[in-house]
Amino acid sequence: MKISSTRAALASALTLSVALGAACRRRETPAAGSASATPGPAGEPPLTAFAALPAAGNLAEAKVTLGRRLFHDTRLSGDNTLSCASCHSLDHGGAEPRRVSTGIRGQQGPINSPTVLNARFNFVQFWDGRAADLAAQAAGPVANPIEMGNTWAHVVETLNAEPSYVSAFTSVYGAQGLTEANVRDAIATYEMSLVTPSRFDRYLGGDRSALTAAEREGLAEFVNVGCTACHTGVNIGGAMYQKMGLVENYFTRRGGPLTEADHGRFNVTHQESDRHFFKVPTLRNVALTAPYFHDGSHATLPEAVRTMGAVQLGRRLDDAQVQHIVTFLNALTGELPANARPPANEVAPAAPAPTPAAP
Ligand code: HEC
Ligand code: HEC
Fold first, then answer.
1. Do 69 and 23 fall within a single domain?
2. Options 28, 96, 147, 217, the catalytic residue
3. What is the CB < 6 Å shell around ligand 1?
4. At 104, which CATH number?
5. What is the mean pLDDT of residues 132-139?
6. Residues 97 and 185 in one domain
7. Distance CA 206, CA 35 (A)
8. Can you spell out the DSSP letters for 50-107?
9. Mean pLDDT on 72-95
10. Residues 20 and 36 placed together within one structural domain of the fold
11. 114 and 179 co-located in one domain
């Protein structure tokens, strides 16, 4: 969604939420899984804004296993200290427990890492959408001097010195073997496997008992206050760019100097109308991924929900509303596939010490 002014953006968001509110009470047909889509029970909000997670699909198991090893291997970084998992921890919802990323030699990055879980369902990658897909995305961090600080030539050389990698690449990619493109392909395939169905997906599939009464109440609040104008689709986000601070200036409210990262999509397009626009993030597993927002400025989920209500919707949510919504968001925590974590003999790296989030 590309919008030329705040007013137009607001009008558009409100039109969308009105349209959603007016939609008839029917369940979104799940993209995969249960075929028994039944009409929503009376008194519950329409579910047309959402879609259940599709299954991961048929991914070549050997590729997923190879990508998993690469994702957790610190040899991808210039000084052997960081793996992808250092900033995208499976124990932290696929994101990191610190405000902004810490790259090699302790360098502070400009922005908070988004989750890799279900990232394949985002319409673009990165907060500002500068990568089209996961394979394109994987090129970035390795060569970024303040992230992994390596070169692809050096990565390929290092991995080539490890016989078990050479044989794994040959068995998966044949004569092509161990190349930069294949390293990226294997990592992207592993990321494609990181799909985390939750109880909310079972609910969307027609199993009303999959959510508690309190979670259903939170879902109703989430829809009724208008969060679904932006957090919509399979990822409850990840489907459009939107302005951070659509109704009220977020950056004034936050305080502190504007950083380059705060300009969001503008940094890619240099269009004034894209200033402070970000990819609307997925809310799947959001209860696990604090701190929140591109700047990691909000330490807790209730704070983030309250700020969203104010700056995106112009609503002062009261404590009960915030609590209901947070209860619903907790039901979006899904299950990792059984083989997501590396086996003990593939040593997981120690993440750098977290820096505490600001109050
Ligand atoms: C030093 C920390 C760090 C490391 C190491 C790192 N990332 Fe990231 N990752 C980030 C940050 C920060 C962002 C967001 C950057 C932005 O949007 O400008 C990000 C974004 C992403 C995204 C986009 C997700 C989305 O929804 O937009 C994916 C996918 C991803 N990283 C995968 C990887 C992979 C694969 C590796 C290893 C090759 C890796 N990352 C290594 C910090 C890191
Ligand atoms: C007008 C679009 C819009 C609306 C409406 C909206 N959001 Fe957001 N939401 C965004 C954008 C854009 C971001 C990312 C902003 C950033 O990081 O600077 C975001 C981020 C978030 C985050 C942080 C996620 C993370 O991983 O850091 C949460 C939580 C959230 N929204 C919840 C909500 C809730 C709850 C509502 C309803 C009260 C809501 N949002 C309404 C656009 C919207």
1. no
2. 147
3. 76, 82, 84, 86-88, 101, 103, 109, 111, 113-114, 116, 119, 122, 125-128, 134, 137-138, 141-142, 147-148, 187, 191
4. 1.10.760.10
5. 89
6. yes
7. 9
8. B-PPPP-----HHHHHHHHHHHT-GGGSTTS---HHHHSBGGGTTB-SSSS-B-GGG-
9. 95
10. yes
11. yes
Q: 278 forms bridges with which residues in the sheet? A: 242
Any domain includes 13: yes
Residues 81, 106: Cα–Cα separation, whole Å: 10
d(CA 316, CA 16): 20
- Sign of the CA dihedral running 101, 104, 107, 109: negative
Give the pLDDT of residue 143.
85
Task: Please give the full DSSP string across 279-295, using - where no structure is assigned.
Answer: EPPP-TTGGGS-SBTTT
The DSSP call for residue 264 is B
135 pLDDT above the threshold of 70: yes
Residue 219, in any domain of the structure:
yes
Residue 14 predicted with pLDDT over 50: no
Measure the CA–CA gap between 93 and 76, rounded to whole angstroms: 22
Enclosing domain of residue 79: 61-192
- 147 is an active site residue: yes
